[in-house]
């Protein structure tokens, strides 16, 4: 059976991930992501109303025109988790393919919301839920799709595995090797090892290189949680305002914030559109068990009403958990910093960034401005209470050891980052150009012919 | 009563801390430290045989000649904890003063060992043990010395407080605000707050500026411990060599390493002169309860014999905990990296640095070389599993809030670092040149006259 | 005669420089600057319409309320050169003082333009021109004001010297020791040395610490000119668009750009409001001899008309010299990058930044965005073709050697930068707190009483 | 005719460059370099006595065992210039090949000296001199070797071009596009353009990626010369010691130092083994016209005798130009810093580093120590008076434009640096894996078969 990989997007950047695997006549697409920074650098762009080709020209979504070179039928579109760089182009591209979107329940729900907010295209693909640990038949020639549970900075993340007669294709993007996650099960290394030992073995492993240059092991979410606990508990006696911010989609982190708020005698409340969206969805789907009275507000009016209530009842009784960890100009924390909300910051009030600045000058500039504006009002900054969601070097070594793949394709970054992974894989006996493939957006790699 | 502060050393560098406080006719000296880097930059210097004046000229020990300008009798020499930059000049300077050395038991023991290894001077000052929480009368005019328990990267650390009729002088160097230390009691903030509320209040607070430029709060040792646990537990299935290194004097960290080694089925063993010295001392004084069969070896012969045993019985059964976290040329880990010990590293073996590189090009160069040599043998590096022992900004704010000092003297670094503390203290209402003193080595500050 | 220095602004930041010197009953004010970044961080602020007190609260202009503590009459307001951080607050503060504004001709012209654009206050102080090398009597007690020629990144810069019976006060901000400037005379070191040798000598030297942490010597403008020449000459054969940007007020640099444009067969044209303002002023005052047909356009309409003409006549015949070297959102180069002007960039077109990014995350973010947008259109970036306008360490040593001042007051930055100067001055025998003064905004230093 | 490229060394590092080109049966080897840092990291290694295989295992010299896979006869070994990373392995590897070493006169002389100091192998290959602009026939099938003049940080550097019936192979390592070099002719861009326009064109271009991540254009040596002139002229009035250091092999820089020393009334003198070696060789071969009485001393005794003479006759009359710009532990400047020479440094003496620190922690640590030791004696540091010898991005674009190569192979660095070049080449229409080759040490690339 012919096996071919189309490396469509995310091989020259972080952002617009998209890869297709053809096994015989059956094609499965993994991820359809959006590179948001390519959009935001232009003023006044509204992606909801834009046409795909314009977004492709901007480098914002994958250029999937290479799909016409891939002879076969798309049987499934498989986003691996709910981050925008993995699902953000579905509303622009999925309608071109007559195939269902298959994902875990939380991811499906986020895809559904995105499709609903799309204003240019009508996306009508079936949405099919499949849990980690489950499998689905693809086509009629013995190909199976399996979801293996992984741990990442969003819940319900999986690595899809396409089992073919020629061996398994493991699409390994976006995970951390977490044995003590705060929500959900640990990464299913046992299953990866089994797949590695199966008769046909692993034909190809596609890997996320984001942290391939970082030594050691990415710490567990439990380590971030202890750091966060230490930080918030140390504020127990403070009788002024405390505000926290983190990635809205990072439900485990939000949960820790909610719990520690309660532990130090404050009522947590989630504020900002994304905060409401992700946490609300997670709660509705029973991924997290928030206190029944936990407030979540997304619309500006209800947010401002909540801030007024907080000011009336006393800031010392609340812990607002808000959007804005990167200093995004329109996010809630930035509005607070600019004095545009009813919440008044006083000297000594504490702002906790449970996030790291994504290292890019635009973010760094915006975050700097947000912190400076907060500082002008006397606020104190606690930053970097975070762990990455991506494998460091030792996780990569462990995955190679578990899967023993015949081919490796580094992905999810530019060539400079891929280069660091290539060094690492060569240490394990792979050779560039032989079984280790440095590729670009828009290429086809024929593995079996 | 006249109160005067002599800022003798450590006000222009980290290293040779020494401060004297005169209350009427009675003088107490806090710390007599060594700036080791000023020694090491010269080849082949043996401090044990050197004269004080030469070491003063090198900038290695405090220039205490200003003490002759201080009219009064030295009643006590009080090192605050056992790090070299606080006790390392005692063997060179203490004999000039007819006064006992007063310190906590662990510190006293380290001072004693240092005096014994000195080869130039005979130091015969009395060594007096005093525990945190205890007090001692100084002279005959109502001055009392108190030790307040603090948490730092070495056990049995205190902040000495000199109670005078004019108010308390709090010598606040070298602490972290740790409510969940791994060994010993949490920092005694309750006592600091009491002292701040006393009638005379705090006349002067001398503070350590090392991290005054770092936002937020220094995490508890418990956070480092969870990070370390996560790291070592992740290696449980590895059947090759694992080696760890950390600050030898950091008994809490060594204890965590020893425990986690046991948890993952490996026998810990401490190797290197300093490892034996500090951990042996801590165990003899009952500060830590190591397994009875924990091996500690300092002399090269016994270390090499242990390495041979490890190689014979199987590296997979041991966790050597060694010196060399900064890549020091003669430390144990560097010797291992150079292949100068019987311990053979193999591809995939793991080296855990539970320490941060002290940010200075010399260290960075040496650590880089050590890591590169380790890497040439296939070793994998896990680094930065550590938390600082010094207060970040929020700890400084909290101390000012607790003590409400009338005067503040930033210390323990060069003026650039002091400047960061001065900014911080000015935010709290202090004013440079009024009640906030930017000083240098060799100055006298008259607080009450 | 009593001598007192009021350190009003610019002792905790770069930006709102202002210092007053009282000699007996006569007071002279040096500089009244604006800290533009404190304004720009807020959205939609129009300084022209704002009240002084609001600008003081924002930290944008000096808080001159301390002037009421200074017993004496202001006899002159003396801006040292035309940069905004030295003259930008004149329109907000000068009207409070019944004294003329005394400056060199180019500076006076820029002050006049600023006063004319002010919309809140009517400033009616006399504007008095005085050239480098000239002196003026201040009051009736033997005080003289002298202007000594210095070299900086703007023309007609001086260091004012106030000669008093107690010695000279040298206000030494903003200069480079340039013996081969491109416009104007070399720095007048001979005169500084003479002043240092005079009977009364130098009572006090106020110095600019911006580069006190940088080793060596700031290169001459001639070095930047050769670097720029090498860059532009290397483009001689290119037949597409070349665009250059630099500090608008840096007339010497603009002159070099204009000359080299001609050398490589291109017609230079200055575009952007500030370009027109500074170069037009310099030309009218005969500081620079531009080609008679050199176009300078500031208003958007005339700029766009010029761009259209360039596009019609062929980009290869022109070198637009534009504003926007820091990526400022509304500057000309940023508009070009966003495709908002008629000038079309093509792949291979060259953009020359004859400027360094002012190291602050806001600038770095904006400049990054501008370069990225330029790159999306295929433009190639040449950056860092520049030399600083401020003294490095060796220039500071040389000034101390020439002036032999009795007192030194570091200025023009925050305490961290002052600290670097203090280290340097202590190497020369000064002592902090004795004859070397670390001060803050809003202090009085009594030198003679 | 079959054309094949063997990428033997320097494709994963900077250091042990070696590439072979097979055209039919004829093979030409370009460069045989040494990676000195792989040697120096080990204590007490003497390369002169070591066997090739041990040096290959250390990663110090190219692993040329792949040459046995290349079917053909080596007709020439062609080092492109005299730097160690291009000629340093000749004494270890050349004797295995029955072929002459062909190079420019200065390079040949340095090769000869190296062979003479070798103690393990007897290298007896013919040494053939060929000047830039000349050609030589290789084998009997119409292959010609041409040397094109280029500009680099050493004199007499060329890029060899192998003209084959299938097109030219341009081996483009180590050059800067300098139109105003201080010694020798400008880079021969005219000839490169001609080669690009020839009938067969350029089959393959092998390019040096060192600076592929740096924007703009590498400045001409003339710019460094003006910077250096500005620096030294500013010291004209200083009547104490001035010392300069630079790359010993950088004859143009040494020449500038010698000239400017004379201009400011000081006698230059070259000190240190490498200083004597390179400058002596350049002078003997008439590449540079030094003053007839210019002293050059390499042996420690004669150096120390010279230092004594300088101290006797007055430091103010001399400018020692010494080795040690990277703080190498045994170089002359480091010895001076340690007080191990008769030259005594005084407070205010000036040390000029006409070199940049090669950015690697080992160098940075050693240089830091050297500067610190110099500073302890009062010396003042002038650093970074230098320009790179390698092409920045715009030079790369210009070369691609001139040569229009059918294939491009980035070289002379690790994959991360190669990646930056790959991005650049893709901007020009090349595609990775098609006509743009990311390769590793030990690969064969078949271009024509």
From TrEMBL, chains A, B, C, D:
Entry GO MF terms: 5'-3' RNA exonuclease activity; RNA binding; zinc ion binding
Subcellular localization: Cytoplasm
Taxonomic path: Archaea, Methanobacteriati, Methanobacteriota, Stenosarchaea group, Halobacteria
CDD domains linked: RNaseJ_MBL-fold (cd07714)
Protein name, per record: Ribonuclease J
Cofactor binding remark: Binds 2 Zn(2+) ions per subunit. It is not clear if Zn(2+) or Mg(2+) is physiologically important.
Signal peptide: none
Example GO BP: RNA catabolic process
Organism: Natronobacterium haloterrestre
UniProt entry keywords in alphabetical sequence: Cytoplasm, Exonuclease, Hydrolase, Metal-binding, Nuclease, RNA-binding, Zinc
Statement: the UniProt record of this protein carries the keyword Nuclease: yes
